[in-house]
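>> Question from a student workshop board

For tomorrow's exercise we were told to take the sequence and the ligand below, predict the bound structure, and bring the output to class. My setup keeps failing. Could a helper post the expected result so I can at least see what it should look like? The ligand is magnesium ion.
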Amino acid sequence: MATDLAKFAEKNGVKYFMISYTDLFGGQRAKLVPARAIADMQEDGAGFAGFATWLDLTPAHPDMLAVPDPEAVIILPWNKEIAWVPANCVMEGEPLKQAPRNVLCRLIEEAAAEGMHVKTGIEAEFFLLTPDGQQISDQYDTAAKPCYDQQAFMRRLDVIREISDHMLELGWNPYQNDHEDANGQWEMNWDFDDALRTADKHSFFKFMAKCVAEKHGYRVTFMPKPIEGLTGNGCHAHISVWDAPGTDAKTNVFAGEGSGQTGEVGLSERGKHFLGGIMKHASALAAITNPTVNSYKRINAPRTTSGATWAPNSVTWTGNNRTHMVRVPGPGRFELRLPDGAANPYLLQAVIIAAGLSGIRSKADPGKRHDIDMYAEGHTVTDAPKLPLNMLDALREYDKDEGLKETMGQEFSAAYLKMKHEEWNDYASHFSSWEKANTLDI
Ligand SMILES: [Mg+2]
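>> Workshop helper replied:
Here is what the output should look like for this input. Compare the format with yours to find the bug.
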């Protein structure tokens, strides 16, 4: 029996619902609906003009209805009269196939039909900036190696503690918070969960971190490389596959006996093939995991002032070693270090499942394990592809990857590629100061 949102409002003193959906570029869009109107909205959805957001629609399209998922409702811990509820987009009675949450829901069903239930945890790194976004919020946070800086942490304790308190209250089981590797950068971790739940939490975390920071007079950014020369915002994903969803999960399908180099680091045969799919589709899936022009300033970056970028530049995997695109830190799971803070929470999970499913179906081999320091010895690796150097290369790789496009859905893939190519064209027509500096006197 689905949660009745009207009764939920009555019981919890909720006065308004924020019905929210996420567009192709990761923008969160919402309508604030008084509780008195929620019963109808739960049935029919809230109406939006989809064209006005980043979706491949025209002004002539009919209303797009955002139908709330009542099981995912969250009361804002900092404003308890308002509840946020993610929605699935519907048009003329059918799920809108290009809408990111729909893409993920469909892939979760496909994986479940093959007995696979993907669980993920994500590490959504962010910077605390001044409200104008021009500099980090703490002018004294200048250490050359600021990672885990205890004193800098205390100067922003109010913000980080408040977000952590909210996660505790929401039952997300947060377990650690730290000052990250760049000046002004933070990471907060909570327990892994089913892919859709993690995507909803990821969305809500971004919303919550921004709201709390604004309250304290700061600004949060998840931009992949907001400050030149400093470590960028990654969004590492930890992936495992289980025999059942939610609390019914008993067996980690990735754990257990495996063969070859993946078996040595604790991955089962299915784990090996899932990883094989990630490796096979890596250059293409970068168009989703690293979706902006700025994303490519984080991967393939020169060394940062802290000594390392902590971001990959080649399609390689290894054991417990953070210098590769994929790290297998222990038995039964692996960490994809490619995604960045701009990744759309729903498409990130969707493309991991799509690539993994493709790998399992084709019994893909992840290739050789490289047990080296990629930052120091990467130049010695000649048998691994380099990651795309820019967004256009990534989009072209995605467009070439018929298997991934098909698994993600042709309608979604066409819409995404169209909108992202338009964005690239807009960027390419932008006149930059670099051009003048390097061309004026030629
Ligand atoms: Mg980190």
